[in-house]
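Hi everyone,

Forwarding the result from last night's run.
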Amino acid sequence: MKKWCLFLSLYFCICLLAACAGGDISAGEGADPGGVPAEETPAGGETAEPGQVTETFRLVDAGEGGQPALLAKADGAAGDVYTLDLFSVEDVTLEGVSEEEMALLDWAPAAGALVEVTWDGSVMESYPARFGEVTAVCILEDGFNDLCRLYRDVLNDLWEADPGLNDGITELGVDLSETSLPESERSAVAYAFGMDHGLMPIEGTYQELVDQGYIDGENLLWEDGCLFSIRETQDQDPVAFSLPCVGPGDEIPDYSGVRFDAEKWRGGTGAYFFSDCTAVSTDGHWGDYTVGAEAIS
């Protein structure tokens, strides 16, 4: 009899503890009432509509001749390069221009413009990367700067100078690390320059390419390749230019200038230089550059 009483006492204690541990379970951390996780904004951009992202890019190549445009993520990291067929997007607008006005314009996007791309947030893993489903593109009115186009022109001009240095190469080095271009634009310019000549570029400084085994640092030779580089010379005097006359109340354009040296290097006795180059921009539109001196070694 005493054993049964002890058994029943233990049984009721267990039931009481189970009842205390029960009850409603509160929503977990980061969840809405009811335990449903809160909706997250896709990383790297603003949410335009549920499931869509809008980000800003620099147009490095407008994609003439049916080729896709080449874009660099604004102030992005190295490798933040994308391609996009602008003419396959139904909703392409110019900031500050109505749909009716756009229909009357004979316009084409220009390298250097900033563009906002709205898409579903997915990115196809390739290089350059490709957007998922793009729903809208807006070419912005402000922020134009085609320094990327200027430096691509310089690299191509350097390619044509003393072409024997780069004749038959299978590897192409590009070093824009000492320019004011953001890292993403450096990568995009290097890629565009490489595609101009059918080669996938290898970004890196001379020492980095030596460390990676491309350049023979002991014999000062890149047997299979050639290194193209541009270096802005900030230590020199600023570029001098004359301001044009403007009338009372007229807005003064934003002028800026840059000095730089450019070089292609195949070896210790095989290099070509553009020295003391200068260029001037008006509101981000860079004109032709001048070469102070050319040299060969």
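The longest strand covers residues 255-267.

Cheers,
N.
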